[in-house]
Specification:
Layout: H1 2-7, H2 9-31, H3 37-57, H4 65-79, E1 86-91, H5 101-104, H6 106-112, E2 116-121, H7 123-132, E3 137-141, E4 151-161, E5 168-172, E6 181-185, H8 189-203, E7 208-212, H9 216-222, E8 225-229, H10 231-235, E9 242-245, H11 246-254, E10 258-266, H12 279-291, H13 294-305, H14 309-319, H15 326-341
Parallel strand pairs: 1-2, 1-3, 6-7, 6-8
Antiparallel strand pairs: 3-10, 4-10, 5-8, 5-9
Helix pairs in contact: 2-4, 8-11, 13-14
Length: 369
């Protein structure tokens, strides 16, 4: 009987229902990224549709019925956060480390764990998880705000740049006016939208775009230029190429800062927030405490990125601005305006803030040309 189960259809069924989903879930946990919504739906399909029929087709599986139920329920519990926790989707880049300080360090991390469950992914996946409802709060590229309904922006926290940012680069083999095609990093829609607006509105060209992994050598193998964002941009070897810092170019043409991302929360998640929890203050204080530990962050990430601590410290304090002040808001509204005019993004909805009235995404009175 044991060999029959081990080698027969029952063993295959056991692997399909228990072992494969468990291994996949453990893999996601080790990578510290969220389980994709499609996998959760597949899991539920196995549990509620396939497995009962499997027991009817393969009677010998009845011996495993109880084990099956217990295993699936146990792992399913690891997919969902504890009752009352808000699910955070965060970005695993250097520039988000100060924002997540309180969630990962000291007694604040212990206290916040009662209310929040967070996982790391890439910018575009943060937006996907908010849209799918598998996350309640995410630090999303600002372009995603134009396509995800019913979001609230957490006030006064952003990833922005007043001028040069150093981590959003267009690297080209030819002068910019001669670029015919560009390979873009697939992980951020906002940077791609900024690049398209910059090239179309300010440079006057409309090249082709191809999404690709952030490997500069491979990008430039078949393209005139490549766009890198985040840590790969900081680490890239760019000597001998034409290099354009997109935030610097935006400031050159508009005299305004550029906002790349902000925290956003699903309105539906408000019902899960206890009256004693001030979500906005939690994220603002975490940012403030993180900026108080920049030297510690720089030392820790120096070995990870193979960059000098002084370079990382300068990047986090001089190149990145973590506020959503009046100037940054003006830059954000102008970007939404230009992106809509260039048909790069759909028109942005009103900017709705947590615990604040809505604002128009852009208007001719509030934003100059």
């Amino acid at each position: 009987m044991f060999l029959r189960v081990l080698c027969g259809k029952e063993w295959f069924w056991l692997w399909l229902c228990y072992v494969v989903p468990s291994v996949v879930k453990i893999g996601f946990d080790l990578l510290r990224v969220s389980v994709p919504p499609w996998w959760i739906w597949f899991w539920l399909w196995l549990r509620h549709a396939v497995s009962p029929w499997g027991i009817l087709v393969f009677p010998n599986l009845s011996a495993f019925a109880f084990i099956r139920g217990q295993m699936i329920l146990a792992v399913a519990d690891t997919i969902k956060p504890s009752m009352g926790q808000l699910r955070i989707s965060a970005i695993s880049f250097l520039n988000t480390v100060p924002l997540m300080w309180d969630f990962e360090n000291g007694q604040s991390a212990v206290a916040l764990k009662q209310h929040f469950d967070f996982r790391y992914t890439i910018p575009s996946k943060c937006a996907q998880e908010l849209l799918a409802g598998s996350a309640d709060i995410g630090i999303i590229p600002v372009a995603a705000y134009t396509t995800i309904p019913d979001l609230l922006i957490i006030p006064d926290v952003a990833i922005a740049s007043k001028n040069q940012v150093r981590s959003i680069l267009l690297v080209s083999k030819v002068p910019i006016e001669k670029i015919r095609n560009v390979a873009v990093d697939h992980s951020s829609r906002t940077s791609t939208a900024l690049l398209k607006v910059f090239l179309k509105k300010f440079v006057g060209i409309d090249p082709g775009f191809t999404e690709q992994s952030p490997d500069l050598e491979e990008m430039l193998r078949w393209h005139d230029a490549g766009m890198l964002i985040g840590d790969p941009a900081l680490q890239a070897q760019i000597t001998g190429h034409y290099v354009y810092d997109l935030a610097e170019q935006w400031h050159r043409w508009t005299l305004l800062p550029f906002v790349f991302a902000f925290w956003a929360m699903r309105k539906a998640a408000l019902q899960s927030v206890p009256a004693s929890l001030d979500v906005g203050t939690v994220f603002q204080q975490s940012r403030d405490h993180g900026l108080q530990h920049v030297q510690e962050i720089a030392k820790s990430w120096s070995t990870k990125l193979n960059l000098k601590p002084a370079m990382i410290e300068e990047y986090l304090t001089s190149n990145i601005d973590y506020s959503l002040d009046q100037a940054n808001m003006a830059g954000l509204k102008l970007f939404y305006r230009y992106a809509a005019e260039c048909n790069v993004l759909p028109p942005a909805p009103e900017l709705s803030f947590l615990n604040s009235p809505s604002q128009p995404a852009f208007s001719s009175q509030s934003v100059s040309n």
